[in-house]
Design a protein that fits this description.
alpha/beta, 4 helices, 25% helix
């Protein structure tokens, strides 16, 4: 039995920027024999749902209207890492593509749908803290 930190949207919580559900059946199946620890770094950082879409632009996270939300993403990422430590997460399964939770590929900051190699802020912090991170697509 493992403790798995997961993006809350993947277990049915309405927390995505567009308030859409992105439930992962594979992750829910994994939860039958493991403990899932849902987090939404964006909400932990104080952002509402729904909210403007955001993408990483270098070290910053910008909304589609140009507003800088890096501080909120940074706070949410640090809080998610603390939760992972407190719950002794064995690994993490986070939402692909997200400027917070994306692992390996993220949107390029042009809001055109193009992806580039990179990690979301929360994934960066989790990896630096020594956690193994994957996306729901890796399950």
């Amino acid at each position: 039995m493992a403790n798995i930190l997961v993006s809350a949207c993947l277990v049915g919580c309405v927390c995505r920027y567009d308030a859409a559900k992105k439930t992962s059946d594979k992750l829910l199946e994994l939860g039958k024999e493991n403990t899932l620890i849902p987090v939404c770094p964006e909400q932990l950082g104080g952002l509402p749902t729904p909210r403007h879409p955001s993408e990483r632009v270098g070290d910053k996270v910008l909304r589609d209207d140009g507003v800088d939300v890096t501080r909120e993403y940074d706070l949410g990422a640090k809080t998610a890492v603390e939760i992972a430590k407190l719950c002794k997460a064995d690994y993490c399964v986070l939402k692909s593509g997200s400027p917070s939770c994306g692992c390996g590929l993220i949107y390029d900051g042009s809001f055109s749908g193009k992806k580039i190699p990179g990690d979301g802020i929360t994934v960066e912090y989790l990896k630096k803290a020594g956690f193994k991170v994957m996306t729901e697509e890796d399950l």
